[in-house]
Amino acid sequence: MQASSSGLARNPRLAEVVLALGGFGIGTSEFVIMGLMNRVAEDLAVTVPQVGYAISSYALGVVVGAPLISAFAARAPKRALLIVLMLVFAVGNIASAMAPGFWSFVGLRFIAGLPHGAYFGVAALVAAGAVPVDQRARAISRVMMGLTLAILIGAPLGTWAGNLFGWQIAFAAVGMIALLTALLIRLWVPVQPFDALGSL
Question: Can you give the CATH number for the domain in which 70 is found?
Answer without folding.
Answer: 1.20.1250.20
